[in-house]
Amino acid sequence: MQLPLPLIKNVVLVGGGHAHALLLKKWAMKPVVGVRVGVNPSPTAPYTGMLPGHIAGHYDRDELDIDLVRLGQFADARLVLGAVTGLDRQSKTVIVPGRPPIPYDVCSINVDITSMMPGLPGFAEHAVAAKPLDGFAARWAEFVDQASGGPLSVVVIGGGVGGCELALAMQHRLRTIGATPNMAIVDANEILAELGERSRT
Ligand SMILES: Cc1cc2nc3c(=O)[nH]c(=O)nc-3n(C[C@H](O)[C@H](O)[C@H](O)COP(=O)(O)OP(=O)(O)OC[C@H]3O[C@@H](n4cnc5c(N)ncnc54)[C@H](O)[C@@H]3O)c2cc1C
């Protein structure tokens, strides 16, 4: 009797951050047949879920980094270092400059969220988007270094889970350096609107 051939698919993951790191971990824990390739500009990617802990002062910046080489080996996925510049949907290939085209049957793209920075006067000079994470972490470190004791006002724009977590983390950090933080969270709608009543309070 001939056994059916396994269905082999080329799966290409563009971006090795939060979303795909979790997917690779699941694949490693429950292997599936197929060819897996991850494409990311660098061999590590910071894990956003730990950003509030870093802002609060619980973790150093390098503790946030996911080692994509090790994770790839664990999940039996090949890692290609580079930034994807396009997809050729005709030939079903992913384009990375300086590399041969990478064939795909399924291509998943998760290359970060981008903040919708409002075009308000002063916004570009005084506000910092939480993502990309490195810019935010670096500006926060500068702010904490320059801060002295006494009252400090911090405004967080966006009252979702991420914004509230960051507000609490910043408040904690500023208290640990002897400042008296005055925190405000601004949202066009209700703060933590997506959560149930018990989690909100
Ligand atoms: C403070 C805060 C806390 C959060 N906490 C959580 C949480 O606990 N749980 C949760 O589910 N979500 C959380 N989120 C939301 C979450 O961070 C985002 O939804 C998530 O980061 C998006 O995943 P991603 O993999 O697309 O992006 P990222 O994790 O940012 O990774 C994107 C990757 O793509 C790479 N990349 C960029 N351009 C290219 C390119 N052209 N080619 C190849 N690679 C490229 C980058 O180098 C990077 O490694 C939080 C967000 C914030 C702001």
Could you give the topology of this structure?
Blueprint: E1 10-14, H1 18-29, E2 35-40, E3 44-46, H2 51-56, E4 65-67, H3 68-74, E5 78-81, E6 86-88, E7 93-95, E8 102-103, E9 106-109, H4 123-126, H5 133-146, E10 150-157, H6 161-176, E11 179-186, H7 197-200
Parallel strand pairs: 1-2, 1-9, 2-5, 10-11
Antiparallel strand pairs: 3-4, 6-7, 7-8
Helix pairs in contact: 1-3
The structure holds flavin-adenine dinucleotide.
* Fourth-level CATH superfamily of the largest domain: FAD/NAD(P)-binding domain
Reading off the top of the CATH hierarchy, the class of the largest domain is best stated as Alpha Beta
Overall residue-averaged pLDDT value? 91
Which architecture of the largest domain does the CATH hierarchy give at level 2?
3-Layer(bba) Sandwich
Explain this structure to me?
This protein has 201 residues and is α/β, with parallel strands linked by helices. It has 2 domains: 10-109, FAD/NAD(P)-binding domain, CATH 3.50.50; 123-200, no CATH class. 31% of the residues lie in helices and 24% in strands. It is built from 7 helices and 11 strands. The strands form 4 sheets. It has a 4-stranded parallel beta sheet with strand order 5-2-1-9, with helices on one face. Strands 6-7-8 form a 3-stranded antiparallel beta sheet, with no helix packed on it. A two-stranded antiparallel ribbon has the order 3-4. Helix 1 (18-29) links the parallel strand 1 and strand 2. Helix 1 runs parallel beside helix 3 (68-74). The model has no long low-confidence stretch (mean pLDDT 91).
